[in-house]
Amino acid sequence: MASNGADLPVRPNPAIPISAPPAEASALEDPASFDIVSTYHALLSSDPLLTMPVAAIESLIHLLSSHPLSTVSETLSLLNTHTSILKKSARNPIAVGAGTDLFMRYIVSALQTGSASSSNKNNNNNRGISGAGDASKDKIAAAVAAPSGDGDGDGDGDSEGDRSGGDFHAIRHHLLTNGRLFVDRAKEARGSIAAVARRFVRDGCTVLTSGGSRVVSAVLSAASDAGVRFRVVYVQSPVPRPSHRAGPSLVRDLRRKGVPVAAIGEAAVAYAMGKVDLVIVGAEGVVENGGVINRIGTYQLGLLAKSAAKPLYVVAETHKFVRLYPLGQYDLPIEQTVLDFKVAAEEEERGSDGAMECGSVADGDLPRVDDAVDFTPPDLITALVTEVGVHTPSAVSEELIKIWY
Known about the structure:
By secondary structure, this protein is of the alpha/beta class.
């Protein structure tokens, strides 16, 4: 791995102890009334530091908690339906999909292995979300086939339906408990990344960054808190992103900490690159080949950094790893209107009062790009820093294999 001289440790992925399942809600919400999209946006609004993948996972956990399901097949059907609704509601579903796909993979894996079976409950106490238990697949099959209990409420367990129902309830407890534990660990990942990535920020250096990445903000704040004296060049987008995704103002927070910050426009990046020692950016998604999908403009930062021989570091949580393999800018699974070609007749129609001359450009003619993203290929990236360590772009595929398989 190429670096700027910092010898960074690779942090192991900590295991999560499994605690006792939380008590079920006394009153379950009517399944037809649950609004996954409203729940998702409410979570983002209530916590400005929450990432979109984690908000999506929390929404699915609320969904499971609010529905009185009795079989595994019902659980999977419910999750698939609401996952599709949530993805379709997002203008850019990549970040949302990173969370929902990871959670669905966990659900399927847990159900296939019977990880919450009572026969393995003791073994689960020292394991994490991705794998906990080796219970018999026969019990899982029984849970899929039969609803819980026989309705008599005697708890005698004398029927196959009672036993399979008990197995399903154990599975459901496991899913909810470990799902919440996963969310907690995902929220803590930012601090783990900052503890490692701040070592790239040395005394006297100048860091260039852009966007409203919460992880970048945490890294630079950690470096400042550690007593490192550095400067920041912040690239200001002419079209700010929605407030719930931009997070705290990086410029304001750093200046309050005594860190000198110069805010520049996107047109001045090449001019400023000669004064920069390294570039640090976040990511909305990390793809299989080690490239990243992020707010539009990240790709040109990578190109300019490479042309000036400056290292580009990407800081991102592993829950943003996605199973995509784009070959270029126009190979992303989303629709964007970044290039909106027009002819004179269209311009004249929009300016029917005659105030706009043919060929001129008005502010209203510029396409909205506040949600637009681009793809930064792996050859422009020096290293990626996640909560489990520092990776070269080529190592991302191996990490994805660990997560998904």
